[in-house]
Amino acid sequence: MGCGASFLAGGRSHVDGREYSTSIANLGVALSLSSKTASVGELKVFHREFKDIKNFYSFGKLIGKGQFGSVRVVTDKSSGAKLACKSISKRRLHCQGAGPEDVLREVQIMYHVAGHPNIVTIKDVYEDSCYVHLVQELCTGGELFDSIIARGHYSERDAAAAFRSIASVVAHCHNMGVMHRDIKPENFLLSNRSADATIKATDFGISVFFSEGQVFRDVVGSAFYVAPEVLRKRYDKRADVWSLGVLLYIMLCGLPPFFAETEREIFSAILSREVLFEGEPWSHVSEGAKDVIRKMLERNPALRATASEVLEHEWVREDGTADASPIDNEVLRRLQNFGALNKLQQEALKVIATNLPEPEVMGLRALFREMDSDGSGNITVQELRQVRGVFGNGGEGELPKGIPEGGGGGDEPYEREFLAATMNQKDKLERQENLYRAFRFFDAGQLRQKVLLLCRDTAKHDSAQPGG
Q1: Which residues belong to any copy of the EF-hand domain (predicted)?
Q2: Residue 51: which pLDDT band, with cuts at 50, 70 and 90?
Q3: What is the predicted pLDDT for the residue at 376?
Q4: Strand partners, 70
Q5: Burial of 34 (0-12, 13-18, 19+ CB in 10 A)
Q6: 293, 321, 338 - which closes a domain
Q7: Do residues 407 and 378 lie in contact, with contact meaning Cβ atoms separated by under 8 Å?
Q8: Is 23 within a domain?
Q9: Cβ 323 vs Cβ 286: under 8 Å
Q10: Do 45 and 163 fall within a single domain?
């Protein structure tokens, strides 16, 4: 049917002395020798002819966006099966300093760790002049925290069961010589919306192969979950276990152990602040849960528990000591507010973009109006892509992060999203007057209440920490 597993491997032939499975090792894939110098249209990740995925799958609704592409529901034209397709933009890779070897590695890793019940199954891989398409198992149950909140009730035993599935993914990856490097709730989805849905790890975009004793120095991951040794640029697989500890802390408390207003302050707290279990809801959390968190959030990696040891902990084990008594509903409310942070940030960027002084956005606004060839106030994907060299050198212009793949014509002007996606977001978010404008816009009703409650929770949490 597709080009799937017929071209997935190459690179390393061994991981810690263990050979790849025959089905992978015999695939014989090579990165195109011209990948470093080729234009985007000529660049090949896999050494084979381009094939049009639309001959095999029909594309449906957009269900996710990331740094390098988007995820859509697709339908297999031969079987009618619904799947998910992660389309990775070659131009975005090119413009943001990544390379085809990163995509190749992600595909290799997904096939290498396949077969675990809590890892999403990769079905097919296609490549054309603009994208690499990864066709995967479709997960329809939503993100981990959203599913917890939707249940409306929650116990330590529930938390232990969910966490056990996630920790088993990390243990499996480590046993297979793979370090995940981005353990966070957003990267774990539910297979469906039923009560017995399976948790699935879905993103291996920055995962790497490793050998025992190998040290990594590149700083990757997500701010709240990154291990202190990653910030010090000297780490190994045990950094994943730290991230597991942060994840479980949030699952039982509703807030991360190291919470601050800026990334710099978050990193400072990770490097120096002691993890405490004071105040609510910790007085009602069992000592077993606190003990396994302490073992994972041990700052000395040499003393930190391994993923396998975490799975053997008495609180984590399937027949373990985790209590079935309900966790305080305050934790569910905190989880809901914490999960809304990223969504709120994206909306705030749109408000900030449309309220910036004209000199700051004059160039981007002019660029938008140049693209808006029909003067409709919206730009289509085709109009955007017709402008060569806007987001890179030559080739078709690629969509920046934050612009919907489906084009304009929605309920709000496309110009606002265009400005939000193309401006210097970090600089604009850290300027107090811009944040004040955004707050005034959102200063109404339920959203205002959620922001204030989150600020209150954070203040209480910080006051319980040394120096708080």
Answers
A1: 359-394
A2: confident
A3: 52
A4: 65, 87
A5: exposed
A6: 338
A7: yes
A8: yes
A9: yes
A10: no
- In degrees and rounded to multiples of 5, residue 447 shows phi and psi of -65, -40
Both 418 and 364 in a single domain? yes
What whole-number distance in Å separates Cα of residue 343 and Cα of residue 336? 11
387 has pLDDT over 50: no
Distance CA 257, CA 288 (A): 18
Residues 131 and 150 placed together within one structural domain of the fold? no
What CATH number did the domain enclosing 323 receive? 1.10.510.10
pLDDT at residue number 247: 97
Which one from 16, 52, 128, 182 is the annotated catalytic residue? 182
Q: What is the pLDDT of residue 372?
A: 57
Do 198 and 320 reside in the same domain of the chain?
yes
Residues within the annotated binding site for ATP?
86
Q: Is the pLDDT of residue 317 over 80?
A: yes
192 — pLDDT class (breaks 50, 70, 90): very high
CATH of the domain at 425: 1.10.238.10
Indicate the number of domains in the chain: 3
Q: Assess if residue 220 is contained within a domain.
A: yes
Of 338, 366, 390, at which residue does a domain stop?
338
**If DSSP states are collapsed to H, E and C, what string results for 104-139?**
HHHHHHHHHCCCCCCECCEEEEEECCCEEEEEECCC
Residue 88's φ and ψ, nearest 5 degrees, are: -100, 120
183: amino acid identity, one letter: I
- Asked if residue 298 and residue 151 are part of one domain, the reply reads yes
Say if residue 64 is in the same domain as residue 154.
Answer: no
- Which span out of 2-6, 240-244, 340-344 was modeled with the highest average pLDDT? 240-244
173 and 287 housed in the same domain:
yes
Contact 255, 338 (CB under 8 A): yes
Most confident of 64-68, 415-419, 445-449: 64-68
- Same domain? 364 vs 239: no
Residue 20 inside a domain? The answer is yes
Condensed to tens digits (0 to 9), the pLDDT of residues 354-379 reads 666 666 656 666 666 665 555 555 55
Which pLDDT value is given to residue 328? 84
pLDDT for 30 equals 38
pTM (predicted TM-score): 0.71
User: 449: Cβ–Cβ under 8 A, 6 or more apart, which residues?
Assistant: none
Separation CA 349–CA 428 (nearest Å) = 8
Give domain status of residue 463, yes or no. no
266-280 tens-digit pLDDT: 999 999 999 989 888
Q: Is 182 part of the annotated catalytic residue set?
A: yes
Burial 367-378 (b: 16+ CB within 10 A, else e): bbeebbeeeeeb
Which domain, by its residues, includes 9?
4-136
The residue behind tokens 């409709």 is 376
Contact criterion met (CB below 8 Å) for 56 and 78: yes
